[in-house]
UniProtKB/TrEMBL annotation:
The protein's required cofactors: FMN
Pfam families per record: Oxidored_FMN
Name under which the protein is recorded: Alkene reductase
Gene Ontology CC terms, in alphabetical order: cytosol
A Gene Ontology molecular function term of the record: oxidoreductase activity, acting on the CH-CH group of donors, NAD or NADP as acceptor
Originating organism: Rhodoferax koreensis
Similarity comment text for this entry: Belongs to the NADH:flavin oxidoreductase/NADH oxidase family.
């Protein structure tokens, strides 16, 4: 049997991707005034347009959804116009681009919240994690528990941001259901002690994520909606006592909604792939559309995974930071450049748009 490679096209719904290599969402904290992506962002993403699909950095759906300084939004006309420059620049180069839609929930700081308010969460449990604010890392603020009556507004913020994404020229949206942010805070019982319809059982804890997904699907279509999850990751200081049945249920429900892809961070985000026991094949069986795997992939591991049928697409995060032409380098066996950890969050062109491509 001929071996499949990452360098073949893949049909993501009706969208044809040039290859199976996806750029994972990467927060870079460089938005300009009004949390508008700047000109450099258009250059940065266009440089990486040879990825089969780019998923942008996490982008807040409202002012309340912000948890780190200088992260972009998608809820004002200026932000839509800023993103339009990014999507145009990527499309001119023949690339495809989804925006990752984000609400941080309790992973925030009063200095970033409208009116200096407390960040919101399923329950008033402070996360053991830090956010980037006032040009440094600081402990998150004490959150307040959301009233049930506030949840429709949050669902609608995601829906409206998805509509704005299409207006900004995106090919689709990824709902950020991973890494300890709001939607995962509802899903994982370490952050959710609610006793209403959004807490307790597996079905109740999945409710907000699934309501958001359904609202986004209704707004922009299932073919333009993906969801990212991280079943066993403790990113954002979060824990779950029952990830396997919880995420088996979520995969089934998302499959029923017909979303175009499920994006799964395997293991600890940016850490060990085997951080905790989990049967990812169980998600793969339950979700029939495109399955996108991430975390610690090399060309070899991804190619093996593809040929074993473990996933259809593979997302690379850190390697895309220092290698704008990652696809070409993987294809030709060229050496990979290392990223500079000092220039990840905030700043200008240095460590952002100045990593060279081999071809120049
Ligand atoms: C600088 C940086 C920023 C990140 N920002 C995001 C983000 O905005 N949204 C998200 O879901 N994951 C984010 N991640 C996690 C990556 O998408 C990815 O899951 C992680 O780096 C593991 O993949 P890799 O081993 O290919 O790097 C970020 C990671 C890094 C290193």
């Amino acid at each position: 049997m001929t071996e499949k490679t990452l360098f073949e096209p893949h049909a993501l719904g009706s969208l044809m991707l040039a290859n199976r290599i996806v750029m994972a969402p990467l927060t870079r904290n460089r938005a300009g005034a009004g949390l508008v992506p700047n000109e450099l962002a258009a250059t940065y993403y266009a440089q990486r347009a040879s990825a089969g699909l780019i998923i942008t950095e996490a982008t807040q759906v409202s002012a309340q959804a912000q948890g780190y300084q200088d992260t972009p939004g998608l809820y004002t006309p200026a932000q839509i116009a800023g993103w339009r420059k990014v999507t145009d620049a990527v499309h001119v180069k023949g690339g495809r681009i989804f925006v990752q839609l984000w609400h941080v929930g309790r992973v925030s700081h009063v200095d970033l919240q409208p009116g200096g308010a407390a960040p919101v969460a399923p329950s008033a449990i402070r996360a053991a994690t830090k956010v980037f604010v006032n040009n440094g890392f600081a402990d998150v603020s004490e959150p307040r528990a959301l009233e049930q009556g506030e949840l429709p507004r949050i669902v609608d913020d995601f829906r409206q941001a998805a509509a704005n994404a299409i207006a900004a020229g995106f090919d689709g949206v990824e709902i950020h259901g991973a890494n300890g942010y709001l939607l995962e805070q509802f899903v994982k019982d370490g952050a959710n002690q609610r006793t209403d319809a959004y807490g307790g059982s597996i079905e109740n804890r999945a409710r907000l994520l699934l309501e958001v997904a359904a609202a986004v699907v209704k707004q922009v279509g299932a073919e333009r909606t993906g969801v990212r999850i991280s079943p066993v990751s403790t990113a954002g200081g979060i824990t779950s006592s029952d990830p396997q049945p919880q995420y088996d249920y979520i995969a089934e429900q998302l499959n029923t909604l017909g979303i175009v892809y499920l994006h799964v961070v395997e293991g600890a985000t940016g850490g060990p792939r085997d951080a905790a026991a989990f049967d990812y094949a169980s998600l793969r069986r339950r979700f029939k559309q495109t399955y996108l795997a991430n975390n610690g992939y090399s060309l070899e591991l991804a190619t093996a995974g593809l040929n074993e049928g473990k996933a259809d697409l593979f997302a690379f995060g850190r390697p895309f930071i220092g290698n704008p032409d990652l696809v070409e380098r993987l294809k030709t066996g060229a050496a990979l450049a290392q990223m500079n950890p000092a220039t990840l969050y905030g700043g200008g062109a240095a460590g952002y748009t100045d990593y060279p491509s081999i071809a120049g």
